[in-house]
Amino acid sequence: MPGFEVLYQAAALCLTYPDDDFRARLPLLREAAPQLRGFTDHAAATEQGALQAHYVEVFDFKNRHSLYLSWWTDGDTRNRGMSLVRFKELYRAHGLEFTGEELPDFLPAVLEFVSRTGDMTMLTEHRDALDELRSRLTAFGTPYACVLDAVCATLPPAPTGARR
């Protein structure tokens, strides 16, 4: 994963709710991860309230654009609980304890994990879900699609016959 650590960390920040800290980090994100310029340029040119409203519209109203990776494979079933445990176990195996407010399969948390450890297991295992999310974000016409474009461009192709 040489060189992708910064991209993954920047993508994680771009996919979290755009609070005041995000706005302050935008110049650094634009400089550090040119692959994300489509999104960061949009974010820099968009008023804070409008950017926040768009984030909520894209990610919070429906699971259609879910940032929770296990939702794509397990939906809202019992199996999802075991998938979440797997994410936590992977974090622990690297000496990290997941204590975030979000679930451990939250894509920004996974991207931050990968940027710190280099372990791409969960990204590659959920490649098909990332492709589906990217496709849906593109169809929706949101600049967030370019963040998924950049992340997916770093991953090997999804295995043939992968389920969505």
Automatic annotation (TrEMBL):
<dbReference type="InterPro" id="IPR036411">
    <property type="entry name" value="TorD-like_sf"/>
</dbReference>
<dbReference type="InterPro" id="IPR003765">
    <property type="entry name" value="NO3_reductase_chaperone_NarJ"/>
</dbReference>
<dbReference type="Pfam" id="PF02613">
    <property type="entry name" value="Nitrate_red_del"/>
</dbReference>
<protein>
    <submittedName>
        <fullName>Nitrate reductase molybdenum cofactor assembly chaperone</fullName>
    </submittedName>
</protein>
<keyword id="KW-0534">Nitrate assimilation</keyword>
<dbReference type="InterPro" id="IPR020945">
    <property type="entry name" value="DMSO/NO3_reduct_chaperone"/>
</dbReference>
